[in-house]
Structure formats: structure tokens, C-alpha cells
Amino acid sequence: MAVHVKLLAADLLSLAVHHASCPPSFTRKGKPVSRAEAVGVVVSRERKDKYLSFLVDDGSGCIPCILWLNHRSDRERDLGVAAEMAREEAATVQLGKLVRVRGTITAYRGVVQITVGDVVVERDPNAEVLHWLDCMLANTFMEDQELRMASSTILTVTPNLLINPEFLVRSQADEPLICIQISGSCEK
Q1: Quick check: helix, strand or coil at residue 137?
Q2: Most confident stretch, 68-77, 121-130, 163-172
Q3: I need a surface site. Which of 7, 138, 148, 185 has the fewest CB within 10 A?
């Protein structure tokens, strides 16, 4: 299963092209990135016979996205089903809707874009803010990872979010948590 890196538009659009081969590969802070997840509002939409092109605005910029309507599967018998699923996804992408997009990072005519694997309309209005928090925490984690001491690490976190130096976890509690990595346990 591939990992989709949560990115803001500003981060996605500033990715460095590591190899300009076909397909190109991208890096962020020296780490390879091939798949991304973004959350934002659909601000532009253009439907053609073979694809849907749309822009997702997350407040830090606009991410170009392309959803292919007829090239979702290599197997001939699955092609019809996959194309129908892509058409259904395309129908949900409407102007003004808050969407979560996951897909492969590609470039077309020198512009970084997401070739959509799946797109979901978000019903929770907080989804965009939570995505921003996840992105900021991941950025902080990436920066702190290089500076982190080899011994114990103490991190304080906002309500409902907990950073463990190994992974990000959501807390079910409404109170702030403090994570102290001594034996891998966290205490309230």
C-alpha cells in the first residue's frame, strides 16, 4: 500500500524535481515523494471526454489536479468498471465543494500536478483545518527529526493531537496531551 504524503499547495508546488526522466521524480527536503494528499475547495473545473481537470485551493495556493476518465485500469475487463467509477468521482467534483484528493505527483508542461487516484467530497467543515494541522505537525516533525536528541524527547501537543516521534496519532480525549518518550508510553 502506497503512502500519500499530506501536503499543502505551497509545499506541493515547490517540490524539487529530482530526476526529469519520464515519469519525473520529486523530492521534498531531500526525501523522495511520489504520492500526495490535499484538502481544499474546488475553484475551477473543466470536463473533457477523456479527463476532468480541476483546481483545489487550500488557502496556500491552487493545486492542479487531473482525473483520467478512461485510463484507470490496465486489464480490459476492469476498464469499463474503472471508467464508470472515475465518471462517478468526476460528477462529485463541483465548484465550491470541499474535497480530499489523493494521487500521484506528476508534471505537465513544467507544472506540478496531482494525477488523481481518488477524490472524496468532505462533509466535515473542519477537514481542511485538520489537514493544515497535520501538514504543520509533519513539517515540524521533519525539521525536528534532524535535531532530535538521541535520548528521550518531550513534546507538548494541542488538544486531540499527539506527536510520537515515530508516527502521528489522533487522541480521543478533549484535553491536551503530553507525550514523553521513555518507554513508548504517553500520559495525560
Answers
A1: helix
A2: 121-130
A3: 185
Q: Which residues contact 73 (CB under 8 A, 6 or more apart)?
A: 79, 81, 82
**Res 73 pLDDT > 80:** no
Sheet of strand 186-187: strand arrangement: 154-157, 177-180, 186-187
Q: Are residues 12 and 44 in the same domain?
A: yes
Tell me how many degrees the CA angle 30-168-67 measures, rounded to the nearest 5. 65
166 φ/ψ angles, rounded to the nearest 5 degrees? -95, -30
Determine whether 25 is exposed, middle or buried from the number of CB atoms within 10 Å of its CB (0-12, 13-18, 19+). middle
Average of pLDDT values for 118-124? 94
Residues 98 and 167 in one domain: no
Which range of residues forms the domain containing residue 53? 5-125
82-108: average pLDDT = 86
* Among 125, 142, 172, residue at a domain's last position: 125
Distance from C-alpha of 61 to C-alpha of 8, rounded to nearest angstrom: 8
Pick from 109, 28, 27: which is nearest to 66 by CA? Answer: 109
